[in-house]
Amino acid sequence: MIKLRHNNVVPAMALGVQQLKRDMNRKLVPKELEEIHQFLDRFYMSRIGIRMLIGQHVALHDPDPEPGCVGQINTKLSPMQVARTASEDARSICFREYGSAPEVDIYGDPNFTFPYVPSHLHLMLFELVKNSLRAVQERFMDSDKDAPPVRIIVADGIEDVTIKISDEGGGIPRSGLAKIFTYVYSTAKNPLDEDYCGVLNGVTMAGYGYGLPISRLYARYFGGDLQIISMEGYGTDAYLHLSRLGDSQEPLP
């Protein structure tokens, strides 16, 4: 019940940050933004930890667990399978928003599995693929050329499983790269704008500005990381590193 009650906390908080940004307009100085950013990082990281513990407790008492699962952790998780599901979910939202969606090509060993929390991996891949689809779709919407596919590559290393999401959506200017992991920055239209019917429960394509920073926190929670490398005028590569050693301490704020 506690877990369900707090399901909407992230979009509700994001809405609050957007309202703050709108009401303060340009009055927010960088120092205040930094404080807000640090507070939200601590808040969300604590939330991930608490929800992991509650979820694990509830899942361990499930009388009929999924095969290979220990609580929320799937000991034989296929990143290829999660990438496929997350891509289909992101494409369906892109279809809903734009009427079409670029293809997503996935490369890697289909038989490779490793222990991880499926819901965490789905959330991170969904956010990254969704960003790529939007960038490609908006760049090629009025073009005669076909939209190039978004590529996902799964690499199985000794220390890390790394997943790269590559798109040809035009990239991010270097001046904007520092902002993409802050909670008050989004390249999309603000969902609070009057002519935009963003709903709190519905998943919007973009606009709240919390997809990337939260995805990075999920990656770091289990000792991984998320890096974004961009070529302005061409596209963006997101590198999602997932630690497979299982020896990292919980990064409590």
From TrEMBL:
Keyword Kinase listed? The answer is yes
Domain of life where this protein originates: Eukaryota
Q: In the record, what terms sit under GO molecular function?
A: ATP binding; pyruvate dehydrogenase (acetyl-transferring) kinase activity
Reaction(s) the record says it catalyses? L-seryl-[pyruvate dehydrogenase E1 alpha subunit] + ATP = O-phospho-L-seryl-[pyruvate dehydrogenase E1 alpha subunit] + ADP + H(+)
Name the major location. mitochondrion
List the keywords (alphabetical).
ATP-binding, Kinase, Mitochondrion, Nucleotide-binding, Pyruvate, Transferase
Q: Where in the cell is it found?
A: Mitochondrion matrix
User: For this protein, what is the EC number?
Assistant: 2.7.11.-
Q: Enumerate the spans annotated as Histidine kinase domain.
A: 118-246
Whether Mitochondrion counts among this entry's keywords is yes
Q: Which InterPro entries match?
A: AK/P_DHK_N_sf, BCDHK/PDK_N, BCKD/PDK, HATPase_C_sf, HATPase_dom, His_kinase_dom, Sig_transdc_His_kin-like_C
A Gene Ontology BP annotation from the UniProt entry: regulation of glucose metabolic process
Please give one Pfam family short name.
HATPase_c
> Which SUPFAM superfamilies does this chain map to?
alpha-ketoacid dehydrogenase kinase, N-terminal domain, ATPase domain of HSP90 chaperone/DNA topoisomerase II/histidine kinase
| Record's GO cellular component terms | mitochondrial matrix
Q: Which CDD domains does the record match to this protein? A: HATPase_PDK-like
Member of which family? Belongs to the PDK/BCKDK protein kinase family.
Q: What is this protein called?
A: Protein-serine/threonine kinase
> Which organism was this protein described from?
Musa troglodytarum (fe'i banana)
